[in-house]
Amino acid sequence: MKALVLIVAGTLAFSSVQAQEASKAPSVRPEVGKVLQAAVDLLKSKKGKETLAKLKEADAIGDKTAFETYMIERVRGQAAAQAGDASVAAHSLESAALSSSAPAGDRQTLLAAAAGQYYMAKDYGHCADLASRYLKEGGSDPALRTLYVQALYLGNNLAEAGKQLAALLDAQEQSGKPASEDQLQLYSDICLKQHDTVCYTVALEKLLMRYPKPDYWLRAIYELTKSSSFPSRHALDVFRLKLATHTMRSTGEYFEAAQLSLQDGYPAEAKDTIDRGYAAGLLGTGSEADRHRRLRDMATKALAEDTKTLGQDDAAASAAKDGTVLINTGFNYVLRSQADKGLAMMEQGLKKGGLKHPEDGKLKLGIALVIAGRGQQAAQTLATVHGTDGTAELARLWSVAARQSH
User: Fold this and answer.
1) Quick check: 80 pLDDT over 70?
2) How far apart are CA 112 and CA 133, in angstroms?
3) Percent of the chain with pLDDT over 90
């Protein structure tokens, strides 16, 4: 946050009290000007604490004008910031900003500086108030808008923080400026703390699109599958997504994924999953090594049998009363690197219809297109998947993976 801790740039320059009096600008009395000049000289020498001590002499002078008070507080604010006393700096800079003697051209700079010092002092309420005032009065520094959101968040005003950050992200997107990872992390955290599942999902998807780190993928997949209502029939599709995003983390995941592939009649996929598990050092070791080996032998045998009989049931698949067999058979061809034939069969199966879960068929075609390396077409197909049981949400995550694959 160092970039957001704004201090008034430069130091105040005084030539002489006589010069001020000769001009039309507000002036200070000689006794005040003498102390201020000495304070400014100390400030220029980066002697913040000494400057604060010198200003006590100015405080002791009676009957100060509004302009004299303004000048003293402005110098005090700079000196306190330099000395590391953020609380004193914030109060003084705020006083200077709100003074009737503050030049119109300096008001926003002083408000920004005061907000930054309040942030440093961890007084997030006052920081948010001044940052908001700065923005309402036409301030346009994006750092102050970010500071405003941070102060709202740290002050636990989550609803307003989310509203302001969403507006900021929209404005950046419209101007062609991508959101930063920190901004999207903050947005997802705000959504999560407000228990806004839709908002959190959107934030995670934005993170995945811009910054596809494994941790974000794991968070998104967990958020999708944690509900007890998520369909168990999509367990293998979730494992496939983890494989596609390199987020398989345990021996159990590799083993279960391979078993499900074998059960569904996809030995090529099962063998590939097992091979990846061995390559990752998660299969073939430990007390379960023999069990892993038996599963690998089973997959190898099933793959050999599938290779021998591949194509024999194509005619029966085409003659089936619904498109289920065509879709499953076509998917198997895609997994066996015969994408053109497999995808054509799957599309034929979708057109035939009669599926128990029609949206599942479109999801499966989208996944097949990702596997075939046709990311753009996959994203278009996955965008057509609807439903309220988790299938559409899973399709959206696969769509993100699809767009990253091309």
Assistant:
1) yes
2) 9
3) 86
User: DSSP 3-state assignment of 123?
Assistant: coil
Q: pLDDT of 361-383, one tens digit each?
A: 999 999 999 999 999 999 999 99
Taking CA atoms, 406 is separated from 369, 373, 392, 399, 400, in Å, by: 11, 7, 22, 11, 11
Summarize pLDDT for 243-255 with one digit per residue, the tens: 999 999 999 999 9
